[in-house]
Design goal:
The chain is α/β, with parallel strands linked by helices. Helix content is 40%, strand content 17%. Strands 5-4-3-6-7-9-8 form a seven-stranded mixed beta sheet. The longest helix has 17 residues. The radius of gyration is 22 Å and the shape is elongated.
């Protein structure tokens, strides 16, 4: 069987199974099996496939037709021009999340402009947290753009943190991204002197098996040096799908992506109140909070940004016109 025939047959099977973007899926799976790029694929349509490659390709086509995401079958997804390892333990990075990176960088640049500093934003002196990091795509994209920033990334899932850690190593930012296993910003909350003696951050939350994991001592020293409000930027794409919407999700999402990364409660926006309150407690004056929103959650979340604590509140729509990113500055 040649490349052209294999691609046509794979495409036809996915189309019959009503797989979204079936042409792209058929191409990506064939490229994955052959270890080639798209240019080669269309320049060599008569190249013969080995029987082993053909078997592997059509096995993947069958799995995709049954609902497994293409990214889980290839083990990768591009985000911000970077390739990330993905597995069923992490949310697959979405293109709309790139708006969160854009807004974060824009807000930091505007802050520098208002302060009269140079516009070459390198991240020097910045301390950033990515909450619910998953594959690490947000933390790593920010680390690539802000090469002198120190970045913390939290997740409740140790399996997700292991993948994020590998992605940080792959993109050569493992020395600047520290991973913590905790819920939201729990590991950033210093124990009170009365109950815990010296100010220490919950070392028990630190994921113990990761090579680039922040320790409670490291966080505690930063709080001691800077006070509890030591972060310049908090960015988060938290779980924001309502469990009541589960039946309406695509099967690729509902059946194959981790529930802990999908569902934010019955309505979908229940996690935001705690996240915003913890962000207010950990951001410096003038610090920036940037949140990704669900498709219908903006009306419920914007009122949580109380005017006594937050200023310069703004929302950015995605390419479909949906309010996708909410940003604010800590007073």
């Amino acid at each position: 069987m040649d490349v052209r025939t294999a691609l046509k047959q794979g495409l036809a099977q996915l189309r019959e199974a009503r797989v979204p973007s079936f042409t792209l899926a058929a191409e990506l799976l064939l490229l994955h099996v052959l270890g080639r790029d798209r240019t080669w694929l269309y320049a060599h349509p008569e190249e013969q496939l080995s029987s082993g490659d053909a078997d592997r390709y059509f096995a993947l086509i069958a799995r995709r037709a049954n609902g497994e995401p293409t990214q889980h079958l290839t083990g990768k997804q591009e985000f911000w021009g970077l390739e990330f390892e993905v597995t069923p333990d992490v949310l697959i990075p979405r293109p709309e999340t790139e708006h969160l990176i854009e807004v974060a960088l824009d807000r930091l640049a505007v802050r520098e402009l208002r302060a009269g500093r140079k516009q070459a934003l390198t991240g020097e002196g910045l301390q950033i947290a990515d909450i619910g990091t998953g594959s690490g795509c947000i933390a790593i994209a920010l680390a690539k753009e802000l090469r002198h920033a120190a970045i913390f990334a939290t997740d409740i899932s140790s399996a997700a943190l292991a993948i994020a850690s590998r992605n940080a190593t792959r993109h050569n930012v493992a020395d600047r991204v520290r991973f913590l296993e905790c819920n939201l910003l729990d590991s950033f909350t210093a124990r009170s002197p009365a109950s815990a003696g010296p100010s220490v951050v919950g070392a028990q939350h630190a994921a113990p098996l990761l090579g680039n994991t922040a320790s409670g001592t490291e966080l505690g020293s930063r709080i001691t040096e800077h006070g509890s409000r030591f972060l310049d930027l908090i960015a988060s794409n938290p779980p924001y799908i309502g469990r009541r919407e589960a039946a309406m999700l695509m099967r690729e999402v509902r059946d194959h992506e981790p529930e802990v990364a999908l569902y934010g409660g019955e309505e979908g926006y229940e996690l935001y109140a705690g996240l915003i309150a913890q962000s207010a407690a950990n951001l410096k004056p003038g610090g920036i909070l940037v949140l990704e929103l669900g498709h219908n959650s903006h009306p419920a979340i914007q009122p949580l940004l109380d005017s006594s604590q937050w200023a310069n509140i703004g929302v950015t729509n995605d390419l479909a016109g949906i309010p996708r990113v909410l940003a604010a500055e800590r007073l």
